[in-house]
Amino acid sequence: MTSTDTSRNHLRIATEEAWAPPEIIALYRRHLSDKTIADIGFSSLMGYFLSSPHPQPQAVVARLQDAAERRLSDMDATGIDHQVLALTSPGTQVLDAAEGTSIARLANDRLAEITRSHPSRFSGLAAVSYEDVDAAVVELRRAVSELGLKGLILNDHIRGAYIDAPRFAPLLAALEELDVPLYLHPNTPPDSMIGPYFEAGLDGAVHGFGASAGLHLLRIITSGVLDRHPRLRVVVGHLGEGLPFWLHRIDHMHAKQVASGRYDAIKPLAQPPSAYFSSQIWLTTSGMPWGPAIMFTREVIGADRVMYAMDYPYQFDGAEVDAQEALPISDDEKADFFERTARKVFALDF
Ligand code: MN
Question: I need a labelling partner for 240 at 20 to 30 A (CA). Which of 79, 189, 274, 280 fits?
Answer without folding.
Answer: 79
